[in-house]
Write a structure and sequence with these properties.
Layout lengths: L9 E5 L4 H12 L3 E6 L2 H13 L5 E4 L5 H14 L5 E4 L14 H29 L2 E6 L12 H21 L4 E8 L16 H9 L12 H8 L10 E4 L13
Parallel strand pairs: 1-2, 1-4, 2-3, 4-5, 5-6, 6-7
Bound molecules: NADP nicotinamide-adenine-dinucleotide phosphate and D-gluconic acid.
Length: about 260
């Protein structure tokens, strides 16, 4: 019987007070996992705990800036003591800065790389030793269309997400022999606070994305739940180093011909 369940598994989803991380955590909980999440401050963690409670999930929330290695090591130690060894890690926390490259300060570029690429390295490095000891593990990195494509104003984000695709493949290569599978999910354009500026009424990007998406709609965070459960479950134990694009077909499509 193919096993898509996550019963008895401990999952850490970073930056999961809301948005894509929250939806993935909801899906994992429905599949039986125990949910741990972090966010960057107590206010967000409290907001997240309330939101999980409202959907019947008793989540474990922690304040942790994923770019800080000491804080991440402390987080993993606390979860192992209070909840259990982390079986499933989703590197979801992320930021974007939309600035034309030649106007972007190097400090802004570095900040995006720090959160979107260095942090997945730091958190993965913190959880892998216990996964090796336990004899299994799942790491899912939240990549992007920008792991494959560029566009104006997102140079730092595209560099980070392109790097995250290759970090995914390298973790898969280096730790596959320990029964650790590391894969990515590449969401298309999803309705979350991060894309809210692109979806304001009349924003040209709104109609542009609809024309570039065969599904002719923005994605919903719930569209990511099933793919994430698949990659977190035993059903994907021979899937490794793969980026699963959940994009409504964007990467397959040249775009609708203007009328
Ligand atoms: P979001 O709404 O901006 O949520 C991102 C979460 O990460 C927020 O809770 C944020 O906290 C947290 N975070 C940011 N920096 C952090 C840090 N240093 N330490 C801990 N937590 C931190 O983003 P989203 O749209 O749900 O996206 C989640 C992931 O999917 C990101 O990696 C994003 O790049 C990726 N993605 C999004 C889309 C999309 O269309 N929405 C598509 C493809 C990929 P704050 O509220 O304090 O910032
Ligand atoms: C942008 C968007 C995208 C999405 C996502 C697409 O400004 O182009 O924010 O980058 O967030 O990454 O997959």
């Amino acid at each position: 019987m193919i096993n898509f369940r996550l019963d008895g598994k401990v999952a850490l989803i970073t930056g999961a007070s809301y948005g894509i991380g929250f939806a993935i955590a909801k899906g994992f909980s429905e599949a039986g996992a125990t949910i741990c999440f972090n966010d960057i401050n107590q206010e967000l963690v409290d907001k997240g705990l309330k939101a999980y409670e409202e959907v019947g999930i008793k989540a474990h929330g922690y304040v942790c800036d994923v770019t800080c290695e000491d804080a991440v090591n402390e987080l993993v130690k606390k979860i192992e003591e209070e909840v259990g060894v982390i079986d499933i890690l989703v590197n979801n926390a992320g930021i974007i800065k939309r600035i034309p490259m030649i106007e972007m300060a190097a400090s802004d570029f570095r900040k995006v790389i720090d959160v979107d690429l260095n942090a997945p390295f730091i958190v993965s490095k913190a959880v892998i030793p216990s996964m090796i000891k336990k004899g299994h593990g799942k790491i899912i990195n939240i990549c992007s269309m920008m792991s494959e494509l560029g566009r104006e104003t997102v140079s730092a984000y595209a560099a980070a997400k392109g790097g995250l695709k290759m970090l995914t493949r390298n973790i898969a290569s280096e730790y596959g022999e320990y029964n650790i599978q590391c894969n990515g999910i590449g969401p298309g354009y999803i309705e979350t606070p991060q894309t809210a500026p692109l979806r304001v009424e009349g924003h040209p990007f709104n109609s542009f994305i609809i024309s570039k998406t065969p599904a002719a709609r923005w994605g919903k965070t719930d569209d990511l739940m099933g793919p994430a459960i698949f990659l977190a479950s035993d059903a994907s134990n021979f899937v490794n180093g793969h980026i699963l694009y959940v994009d409504g077909g964007i990467l397959a499509y040249i775009g609708k011909q203007p009328k």
